Amino acid sequence: MDKEIKKKLASNWFKLLQNIICDDIEKIENKKIKFKSKTWNRSKIKDEGGGEFRILKNGKIFEKVGVNFSEVYGKFSKEMVGKIPGANKNPNFWASGISVVMHMNNPYIPAIHFNTRFIYTTHGWFGGGMDVTPCITDNKEKTLLHKELKKMCDRHNKKYYKKYKKWCDEYFYLPHRKETRGIGGIFFDYKKDNWEKDFKFISDLGVTFQMLFNLIIRSKYKKKWTMKEKELQYIKRGRYAEFNLLYDRGTKFGLQTGGNVEGILMSLPPIAKWN
Description:
It is built from 8 helices and 9 strands. The chain is α+β, with helices and mostly antiparallel strands.
């Protein structure tokens, strides 16, 4: 398949998924609050693509949720060339993806993160994953999350779940705290086994994420909570912010390739605290 067709299929899927997820979130809020949308361009001088980030704040269920889509292209800087596969032969790149981060009002509902991307240098690959960060332990929820992710992975390759779960546990780890960010999920990068199969896999992950966030949120949003539990959530959010600012690849990649700063930092919680 022609690489331009691959790019178009991937970015069209990410854009469609952005619409589907935003529609679901507004339904959870009973359509009483809407996303605010902002489009941006990578360059003010020439066509290097851009994107759209959508943010919904101060809802009844969602304290803050961001759903970002981007499709950017251009040349990597000299600093980036050595860090990105295939870029040392040719600094031109193309990248598209979707990123979702949910911070909830109710401390019983975990923070939920998802992203998938397709990057093209002299060759193309997929990356992404989803993970869940509760501030109040719920073993049933953890079991459900991993059962559904395993089921989804097994539809494509029986080896994926074990491999991508391990990758997620290692990736979302705060070495300075010696603790994991949450209860895990799956994470993968440089995925380039077979384009059609890989595309089916990341599409399936998008649909599974949609199903899971609906299940998790709808099962808990009526649960009563206290200010003491809210304080626990603020502390946990501090850890979330630390990870995203210190270690997250997506944050670094976005900032180093001229992405939209507001869109990149939308993953940060609205309020976080430190002891």
